Amino acid sequence: MATEQVISDEARKEIEALFHHLPKKQAACIDALKIVQKHNRWVSDQALVELGPILEMTPHEIDSIATFYNIIFRKPVGRHVIFLCNSVSCWIMGYEGIRNALKEKLQIDFGMTTKDDRFTFLPIPCLGNCDHAPSMIVDEDLYEDLTPEILDEILAKYE
Amino acid sequence: MERPLTEHIKKDGTALTLKEYEAVGGYQGLRAALKMTPAEVMGVVKDSKLRGRGGAGFPTGLKWSFVPMGDDVPQPKYLVANGDEMEPGTFKDRLLIERNPHQLIEGMIISAYAIGASMSYIFLRWAYHEAANRVLLALDEAYRAGYLGKDILGSGFELEMDLHTSVGRYICGEETALLNALEGKRANPRNKPPFPQVSGLFGKPTIVNNVETYCNVPHILAKGAQWYISISKSEGGGGTKLYGASGRVKNPAIWELPLGTTLGEIIEEHAGGMLDGYKLRGLLPGGASTDFLTPDHMNIKMDFEEVGKAGSRMGTGTIIVLDDKTCPVGMCLNLEQFFAQESCGWCTPCREGLPWTAKILLALEEGRGKPEDIDHLTFQTHYNAPGNTFCALAPGAMEPLQSALKYFREDFDEHIHNHSCKYHRH
After folding, report:
1. Do B129 and A140 touch (CB under 8 A)?
2. Which of B1, B71, B77, B262 is 20 to 30 A from B344, comparing alpha carbons?
3. Is residue B11 assigned to a domain?
C-alpha cells in the first residue's frame, strides 16, 4: 500500500541546503525537524520515516531528538499555538488568573486543541519578558502585562 | 556613570543599524584588536578582569587561554555565543541582542580573533523571535561591510558567523549541552574533561561565552583594561553589569550599573521599591537557581564575592522579588516544577529527585503535608548537591529550596500544621 508522502519536495530541498556547511548530515537533524514543522505544523511518524534516509539516521534516532525538545510537536496542533509563561515572575504577577481565563474562553486545558482547530494551548517556561509579567506568545507574537480583560482582543487576531 | 553596553540603545525600541552603531564608535574595538596579535588581545581581556556574565563568573581571559594556539592544532576552532537565556527571571541578554546586535557581533569577532576561531554561532532560544530577525539583518550588514567573511578589514583574519535558533529546553544553556544541541543531538550535558576549549563542537576547540560577556569585549579593546576596571565598584571584577528586577516592585526593568552596586540601591533606587501595599520578604539575586537573600542583605554588593559570602550567587544578576503576600512555599513549588520538567533525565538524582521534591511541595501547598516532609526536602538538598549530579542543574534547583527552608521555615511548618496555605492567590 502506497503511503502518501508528507515531506514536500520544497521542504526536502530546504533540508538538503543545510548540509553544505556541516561536517555530517545528522548535525542538521534539529533544523530539519523545524523545517518539517514549518511546512506541516507538526512532525508525524511518517515524516520521521521520510527524514531517515535524508539525514542518514533511523526514524527512532530522529524521534529520540524530536521528543527531547518541547517546541517540536509530535502530535497535531491547531492553526495557532498559545504559549503561556508559567515560570516564577509570571506566577508571582498573576499567571494563574490568566491561565484560568484562557481555559474558560477556549474551553480546553493545557495540551489540548480547540474543536475548531483554531488554538492549541501550552504552558511554557520563562519567556525572558519578566519585567512585563504575565506574558505569553501566540505563534511568534509576544503579549505582555496580561490581564484577563485584554485576552479577547488578543485572541480575536487569530482566525 | 558610564554605561558602555547600553548608553547608545535607542528609546524607540528599534535596533541600532550598522551606520548608527559605527557613528557612536562601533567596530573601533575590532579595528584596535586587529592591529594587535591574538595573544595581546587575550592579554588585554585578562587584564580587564572581565568575568563571565552567564552566571558562573569565570574569568573570560583565563577561559580563552586554555584554547590550543599555533599552527599545529585542530581546525576549525569554534566560537559560540550562549543566547539561550532560559533562567527564569532573566531577561538581560534579550535587551542586548534586540537593541544592539552589532555590539554582540563585534565582541564575537574580536574574541574569535583572540582564540583563532574561524567559525562562530549565535545560539538563540526559540522564544526570541524579534531578536532572531534583528540578528539576521545585522549579520547581513556585517558581511556586506567586510566585518565578517574572508580577510576582515584587510587583516587576513577570516570568520564566518551563523545564527542557530533552538527548539526549547533549559538545559541548552549548559555549555556542553548547548554544543550537543548545535550538533543536532539531544541536549544532554557532556562529561568534563575534556573541556570544550580543547574538545568542543564536533570535537574541535571551542569557546562558549554568554551574550553579555561578548558585549563587553569591544569596549575593553577600544578603551583599555584600566578604564574597564575603573568603572567597576567590585574588587573581584571589572566593568558594568546588567542588573534587573521582576516581581512586585514599582519599576521592573534592566539597568546597566557598575559591577558591585549594592542590592539596596538596585531595589530602592532603580526598581523604585515595592509596589504600594507590599513588603519585601526576600529575593533571588540572580535567577531561579540562586539562594534566597532577605531584607537584611540590602547592604551587600552585587558581585561574585559578596553575594557568595552572603550564601547565594550573583548568577545572572536579574533579581526575582518575593513579596509578603506571595507564598514562599508556593514559589519553591513553582521553581521545583520548572527544574523537574527541565531535567534532561541523564542522571538519577536529578531525574528522580526533582519530581519527588516538587511532589512534596505540592502536597504542602494542598494541605497534605506531613512533619517528616521537611526532612525529605532537606534530604533532597543534600542528595542533589554539587558532586552528586552530572551537571549544575539539580544543585542549582536546590539553592532556592535550601535557603527557603532556612529563612521561611515557619511558612513550611504552618502549611503542615494548618493543613492549608494561608496565602490567597489572585
Report:
1. yes
2. B77
3. no
CA distance A94 to chain B (A): 6
Per-residue confidence band for A2, with pLDDT thresholds at 50, 70 and 90: low
Number of separate domains in chain B: 3
* Contact map slice: B 81-110 vs A, CB within 8 A: 85-91, 93-94
pLDDT greater than 60 at residue B196: yes
What is the per-residue pLDDT for A21?
A: 80
Displacement of CA B250 from its chain's centroid (Å):
24
B149 touches chain A (CB under 8 A): no
- Position B111: which residue type? S
- B317 and B346 assigned to the same domain: no
Tell whether B55 and B192 lie within a shared domain: yes
CATH number of the domain that residue B59 is part of: 3.40.50.11540
Helix (H, G, I), strand (E, B) or coil at B124: strand
Length of chain A: 159
β-strands A136-138, A80-85 pairing: antiparallel
- The average pLDDT across B375-399 equals 96
Q: What domain range includes position B47?
A: 18-230
| Radius of gyration for the alpha carbons in chain A, expressed in angstroms and rounded | 18
Predicted confidence (pLDDT) per residue in A42-99, tens digit: 999 999 999 999 999 999 999 999 999 999 999 999 999 999 999 999 999 999 999 9
Q: Give the whole-angstrom CA distance, residue B235 versus residue B358.
A: 39
Same domain, B154 and B29: yes
Residue B122: beta bridge partners?
Answer: B81, B163
Assigned domain for B126 exists: yes
Q: Which of B202, B254, B226 is nearest to B92 (CA)?
A: B254
Same domain, residue pair B312 and B347: no
Residue B12 lies in a domain: no
Chain A residues whose beta carbon lies within 8 Å of the beta carbon of residue B121? none
B182 → chain A, closest CA residue: A27
pLDDT for B1 equals 86
Q: Tell if the CB–CB gap between A96 and B252 is shorter than 8 Å.
A: no
As a whole number of angstroms, the distance between CA B325 and CA B344 comes to 33
Clarify whether residues B369 and B283 are in a common domain: no
**Best of A100, A131, A135, A141 to disrupt the B interface by mutation (most B CBs within 10 Å)?**
A131
Contact B202 A142 (CB under 8 A): no
Query: Sorting pLDDT into bands at 50, 70 and 90, what band is B57?
Result: very high
| DSSP β-bridge partners for residue B161 | B120
In this structure, are B180 and B63 located in the same domain? yes
ipTM rounded to 2 decimals:
0.96
Does B5 fall in a domain?
A: no
**Best to test chain B binding among A70, A92, A141 (most B CBs inside 10 Å):** A92
CB B109 within 8 A of CB B340: no
CATH number at residue B302: 3.10.20.600
A131, closest residue in chain B (CA to CA): B252
